[in-house]
Specification:
Blueprint lengths: L2 H12 L11 H11 L4 H14 L3 H6 L2 H8 L6 H16 L8 H4 L7 H12 L8 H10 L9 H14 L5 H14 L18 H5 L15 E12 L2 E6 L10 E2 L2 E4 L10 H8 L1 E2 L4 E10 L3 E11 L3 E3 L4 E3 L1 H6 L4 H17 L1
Parallel strand pairs: 1-7
Antiparallel strand pairs: 1-2, 1-4, 2-3, 2-9, 5-8, 6-7
Helix pairs in contact: 1-11, 2-3, 2-8, 5-6, 8-11, 9-11
Bound molecules: iron/sulfur cluster (SF4).
C-alpha cells in the first residue's frame, strides 16, 4: 500500500474526535489550528470550547473587543495568536463581507496564518492538495525515510516540504493531513513512540535500523535570554494600579503593574526600589507588605519576577495607571504570573477576614 493510502485507511478508523472535526466550518478549523499552533490538544480543547461558546461565529468575534479574546486566551501563552485572531476576524468581516478566502494563496495573506495553517485549512475545508508540515510531520517523515538533514535548516525545510508534497493524497488531502497530525501526536511521539501500533511500521526505515531516537535531527540554536522584572502591586483604597502593555514586547495589550526591569549588570540589592517607584507614581510613603518571586519560562526568555505588594494611604499622581477593583481584575487580561499573584494575595487577604 502506498504511503498516503496507509494514512487514510488508518485515519478512517482511528481519527480523534474533536468538535471542530464535526463540520468543515472554516471558522472552527481556523480557530482550532491557531490554538493548536503552540499548544497540546489536551490543553487547547478547553480553550477552543470557551472561545467558540463566547463567539459562535466570526461576526461575533469581530464585533467584540480584543480585550475579551485576550481574557479568554489568558494562560495559553503566545498572545500574538489572540491579537491576530481578532485582527483577522475584523478584516474578514469588514473587508471580505464576512467570507473566508477559500484557497491557500489567499488564506496565507491573512495575519497569523502561515504556510502550515494555510495548508491545513485549505486541505481540510476546500480539499486543496497542500501538504501541512509541522513538527509532527517532520518527525514522522524523518523516521520513516531515515533522513538526517536537520529539520530547522533551510535545506531541511525545503527537503521535507518537497517530500511531503510528493506523498500527499490526490483524492483526500484534508483527511490525509489530519491523519498525519494524529499519528504524530498519538503514536510517533518524540519520546517512546508506540511503534507496535503504528500503521507505518512495515515501511519505517528508522524502525528497521533502530535509529528512531536519533531522529529527527535539529540544530540547537536557541539562546535563552534572562530578564529581571520587579513589579509593584500598589493597592490604594481597595483598588490596584495597572496599565496596558503597549510596547512591542511579550504580553502586548495585557495588563500589568508598575514595573522596573533591571539587567544582570545591576545588582538587585543595589537598586533602591522604593525611590524608583516614586519616580513612576507619586506616592509619599512605601511600605512593603508582601514579596513574592516567580520564574516564568517562555520559548526564548526566562523571566525572573519579583512582585512587591504595597498598600498606600495617598497617591498624589498615578500617571497613566488605571485603578481597578477586585471585580474588574477578573475581566482584565493579565499575564500568568500576575494572575497567580492575585490568586495568592486574595486567598491570603480573605483568610484574614
Ligand atoms: S514505526 Fe515507530 S518510528 Fe516509525 S513512524 Fe511508526 S511510530 Fe514512528
Amino acid at each position: 500500500m502506498e504511503f498516503s493510502s496507509i494514512i487514510l485507511y488508518w485515519y478512517l478508523k482511528n481519527q480523534r474526535d474533536f468538535p471542530w472535526r464535526k463540520s468543515k466550518s472554516v471558522y472552527k478549523v481556523w480557530l482550532s489550528e491557531i490554538i493548536l499552533q503552540q499548544t497540546q490538544t489536551s490543553q487547547g480543547l478547553s480553550y477552543y470550547n470557551k472561545i467558540i461558546n463566547a463567539f459562535p461565529t466570526i461576526k461575533e468575534l469581530a464585533e467584540d473587543s480584543e480585550e475579551k479574546i485576550l481574557k479568554l486566551w489568558q494562560g495559553l501563552g503566545y498572545y500574538s495568536r489572540a491579537r491576530n485572531l481578532h485582527y483577522t476576524a475584523k478584516h474578514i468581516q469588514n473587508n471580505l463581507n464576512g467570507v473566508f478566502p477559500n484557497d491557500y494563496n489567499n488564506l496565507i495573506k491573512l495575519k497569523g496564518i502561515g504556510p502550515y495553517t494555510a495548508a491545513a485549512i485549505s486541505s481540510i475545508c476546500f480539499n486543496e492538495k497542500r501538504a501541512a508540515v509541522d513538527g509532527n510531520v517532520y518527525r514522522i517523515l524523518a523516521r520513516v525515510f531515515n533522513i538526517y538533514t536537520p529539520i530547522n535548516s533551510s535545506t531541511g525545510i525545503k527537503t521535507f516540504q518537497e517530500l511531503a508534497n510528493s506523498l500527499i493524497s490526490e483524492t483526500n488531502p484534508g483527511d490525509y493531513n489530519q491523519g498525519l497530525m494524529d499519528i504524530g501526536a498519538t503514536i510517533c511521539r518524540p519520546k517512546s513512540p508506540k511503534c507496535n501500533l503504528c500503521p507505518l511500521k512495515s515501511i519505517c526505515i528508522a524502525y528497521d535500523n533502530n535509529t528512531i531516537n536519533d531522529l529527527p535531527v535539529k540544530i540547537k540554536k536557541i539562546k535563552i535570554k534572562q530578564r529581571y522584572f520587579h513589579y509593584f502591586c500598589v493597592e490604594y483604597d481597595g483598588e490596584f494600579l495597572m496599565k496596558k502593555r503597549t510596547q512591542q514586547d511579550i504580553w502586548k495589550n495585557l495588563y500589568d503593574f508598575p514595573i522596573i526591569e533591571w539587567t544582570k549588570a545591576n545588582k538587585e540589592n543595589e537598586i533602591d526600589y522604593k525611590e524608583k517607584l516614586k519616580s513612576i507614581i507619586a506616592v509619599e510613603t512605601v511600605n512593603i507588605k508582601k514579596k513574592k518571586y516567580y520564574e516564568h519560562k517562555l520559548t526564548h526568555q526566562k523571566l525572573n519576577i519579583t512582585i512587591e505588594y504595597i498598600k498606600v494611604d495617598k497617591i498624589i499622581n498615578h500617571n497613566n495607571f488605571i485603578k481597578v477593583n477586585r471585580t474588574q481584575i477578573e475581566e482584565l487580561p493579565v499575564p500568568k504570573p500576575i494572575e497567580r499573584f492575585f490568586k495568592e494575595l486574595f486567598n491570603s487577604l480573605d483568610c484574614k477576614v
